[in-house]
Amino acid sequence: MTIISDNDISELRGWLCAKGKTFQHTKFESDPNRHLLVSNTDDDLIKALSEECLKMDNAPTQSLAVYKTMKEFILCLESVLPESYRSAGAFFCPFGSSVTNFWTDKSDLDVCLVAGSVGLEDVSILEELEREVEKHWSKFEAAGLQSCSLIGNATVPVLKFHGKKNKPFLDVSVNNKAAIANSHLVALFGLLDARVPILGRLIKRWAQLRGINDRSEGTISSYSLLLLVFWFLQNRKPCILPTYDTISKEAASKFVTSCEEICCTDHGFKVPFVVNKDFILKHLWTNRMKNEESVGKLLYEFFMFFGDESNIQSGLKLNLRDGSKSQTTRDDGLAVVCPTTERILSTHKGAAVLEQVSAEFRRARAILQQTKSLRALYEVQQK
User: Sign (positive/negative) of CA torsion 40, 380, 34, 232?
Assistant: First the structure.
């Protein structure tokens, strides 16, 4: 499975053009007095929201450019990889928003060094890679990088590269195969319906600007946020995305003798779900019905649901495997189950952060109900 390609971008472009839209990007910063003014009728509000959403979203073409930058940087990394690592089958693999079509202008890049049979601890591998990078630093400096540093005491150790003005540019981790598998799942859901990556990018950008999309600060991670979006789309009527169980390896085994090919990525990773879009549509998601809700309608309804205080602070667990939800304790707040690992991912760390995240969802709901202004929705949170 190629995560993002020229054909995928063309498909998205064709879908938008069919709706009478283009990729021309309108930045609010260039027109600070621009407000979204609509009448009190829901139809007018939703239509205006859809138009504004599509004007605001410029990531389809941006994602492809970022992906090409990523490929160039990987070539640079590969050029300094020790020969002993190559012989052991080690290679670099991109993951995250830069290759899933959910990139925003505040996203950074992620690369995993799959170490093959290299018999060293992850931190030791990164230390050796850091030494090789320093020996050949002129290559990386020519690519616009200013520094690199090893963060060895993190939950997932990374070699962090910084670009202009010391801005985080790229993280290199080792054997982070779960993240690669999750990236393929995110990319797959984005390919199943052209509205999915648009909605995902808009909601990610909102969370970034409002200061609740930083896992290091205890707020919601980008992956958890996208899982909320996917669960929401699984529960539209008709559904826009299938449940994870529908596309699982177990479901596919009823149609093929071996699932090796349809559950294997381009890099040879075996994942517990089908990565072949055509196979899913032909054999697994056969009860799919047409849903014609606009991006504006989906954005509006997303915040109507998650902006309802009872859906965050009362304790709610969402499961993408079957699209279900269940009540937990109030202290748990809002949580989502990672479908590939079945780990429970919290959207907050601690009661204070829970209130911060909940307040932002409530604020978004109130804005869309009362002021009808996307500009206000995306106002930067002042720290």
Answer: negative
pLDDT attached to residue 63 = 59
Q: What is the C-alpha to C-alpha distance for residues 260 and 281, in angstroms, rounded to an integer? A: 18
Q: Given a cut of 90, is residue 187 above it in pLDDT?
A: yes
Place of tokens 């981790």: 173
- The CA distance from 204 to 226, in Å, is 8
Task: Tell me the Cα Rg of the chain.
Answer: 21
What would the pLDDT profile of 313-326 be if each residue is shown by its tens digit? 667 889 999 999 98
C-alpha to C-alpha distance for 327 and 316, rounded to whole angstroms:
5
Residue pointed to by tokens 């509205």: 195
How would you write the chain as a 3-class SS string? CCCCCHHHHHHHHHHHHHCCCCCCCCCHHHCCCCCCCCCCCHHHHHHHHHHHHHHHCCHHHHHHHHHHHHHHHHHHHHHHCCHHHHHCCCEEEEECHHHHCCCCCCCCEEEEEECCCCCCCHHHHHHHHHHHHHHCHHHHHHCCCCEEEEECCCCCCEEEEECHHHCEEEEEEECCHHHHHHHHHHHHHHHHCCHHHHHHHHHHHHHHHCCCCCHHHCCCCHHHHHHHHHHHHHCCCCCCCCCCHHHEHHHHCCCCCCCCCCCECCCCCECCECCCHHHHHHHHCCCCCCCCCCHHHHHHHHHHHHCCHHHCCCCEEEECCCCEEEECCHHHCEEEECCCCCCEEECCCCHHHHHHHHHHHHHHHHHHHHCCCHHHHCCCCCC
Give the model's confidence band at 64: pLDDT under 50 very low, under 70 low, under 90 confident, else very high: low
Give the span between the Cα atoms of 324 and 79, in whole angstroms: 47
Confidence band for 71, pLDDT divided at 50, 70 and 90: confident
Non-local (6+) Cβ contacts of 126 within 8 A are: 113, 150, 152, 157, 158, 159, 172, 174
Residues 151 and 174: beta-carbon distance below 8 Å? no
**Nearby residues of 74 by Cβ (< 8 Å), 6 or more positions away:** 92, 94, 111
pLDDT, mean over the chain: 83
